[in-house]
Amino acid sequence: MTDLPGTMFAVVQTHDGFSGTATGPGIDNASEWLAPAELPLPEPGPGQVLIRLRMASVNPSDLHFIKGEYGQPRVKGAPAGFEGCGDVVAIGSGAEALKGQRVAFVASGSGAWAEYVVTQAQMCIPLRPDISDENGAAQIVNPMTAMAMVDIARSEGDAFVVSAATSQLGKLMCSLGRDLGLKPIALVRRAETVDALRELGADEVLVTNDPDLPEKFAAISKTLKPRVFLDAVSDQLSEQIFAAMPNKARWVSYGKLSAEQPRLTQMGQLIFMGKRIEGFWLTQWMMSTPPADQIRVVAEVQARFADGRWKTDVSTHLPLRDVVSGLAEALKKTDGKVMITP
Ligand SMILES: NC(=O)c1ccc[n+]([C@@H]2O[C@H](COP(=O)([O-])OP(=O)(O)OC[C@H]3O[C@@H](n4cnc5c(N)ncnc54)[C@H](OP(=O)(O)O)[C@@H]3O)[C@@H](O)[C@H]2O)c1
């Protein structure tokens, strides 16, 4: 590590543990949860690598996390951020295969919103040269989730429902669904996105503030019989959609973009119609899916990005040193990811 600096710039968390709140991923002022810091350069331990950051993506999970509302506790003073891409500049024992490689990574040792990141070698995917840094920085969390969840949908029939379909993950799932011959039914908040979603692969697109939505969805549900609802919003409207789905429908909640806590109004459907409510978390999927299957998924993900079937829409490039002051404003832009650059 002789040619590396002794310290690095990072954006660190200012709170520990969980907050006990459930306010959703929206933020007005990042300085409530984050601060700039100069930290000693982290060292990779056995099985770990040190990565010089090229780009980190801002996902809703990062925002839930810094607010103390995610599935793992915050660590005060540790860099924030889960996902990005960069160059492996130092390795611990057992990680020799990654030496010098450009990799996509999920940060496990220290966070991604820093000039340097330590993570496990298993949390890195070497990137093909034809994958851009923008696609590389969003190569794992959303694409792997899209592959895993569309697989769930496919196991239950042709049609499936996707909420927040203008999200990066929603778009990936609509186009993957279409490519597999399935019929994605997309729910969006903004009417102006309907045509773009249809072009991407949605068979039907419904706008959530349309007063006729219940009747329109009921008619579509009767015809297409969607059995899986892949839901990132998880609010009262989600409950109504689920209630209008046919026998044996599965409501798979994988995100909590809305702060509203839904009330269950049709408990009898769980008993008499065999309906189910469940969750999906990529972390659990990775722990329970055999490595050979995961390798196949990774290869398919890279192939889809390399040949242009998938792409990451980027709204803004935000310099790392401007994250605390500029993140809230940068997140106001719709239709794309905020990408942090060192
Ligand atoms: N469980 C898992 O393993 C897993 C893995 C990956 C992602 N996720 C979840 O997947 C979801 C999408 O992630 P992403 O990275 O694709 O998001 P993204 O690209 O950052 O987009 C989020 C979009 O959701 C829409 N949205 C925000 N608040 C909303 C609300 N209250 N109601 C309806 N729509 C709302 C907005 O679109 P408009 O402004 O166009 O409406 C926003 O652009 C998130 O909830 C994330 O946490 C879960």
Give a verbal description of the structure:
InterPro entries: ADH-like_C, ADH-like_N, ER, GroES-like_sf, NAD(P)-bd_dom_sf. This is Zinc-binding dehydrogenase. Keywords: NADP, Oxidoreductase. By secondary structure, the chain is α/β, with parallel strands linked by helices. It has 2 domains: about 5-140 and about 310-340, Quinone Oxidoreductase, Chain A, domain 1, CATH 3.90.180; about 140-285, 3-Layer(aba) Sandwich (Rossmann fold), CATH 3.40.50.720. It has helices at about 60-65, 135, 140-155, 170-180, 195-200, 215-225, 235-245, 265-270, 280-290, 290-305, 325-330, and strands at about 5-15, 35-40, 50-55, 85-90, 100-105, 115-120, 125, 160, 185-190, 205, 230, 250-255, 275-280, 315-320, 335-340. The strands form 3 sheets. Strands 3, 4, 5, 6, 7, 14 and 15 form a 7-stranded mixed beta sheet that branches. Strand 12 (about 250-255), helix 8 (about 265-270) and strand 13 (about 275-280) form a beta-alpha-beta unit. Helix 3 (about 140-155) crosses helix 4. The radius of gyration is 20 Å and the shape is globular. The protein starts with 6 loop residues before the first strand and ends with a strand. The model has no long low-confidence stretch (mean pLDDT about 95). Bound molecules: NADP nicotinamide-adenine-dinucleotide phosphate. NADP nicotinamide-adenine-dinucleotide phosphate (NAP) binds near residues 232 and 334.
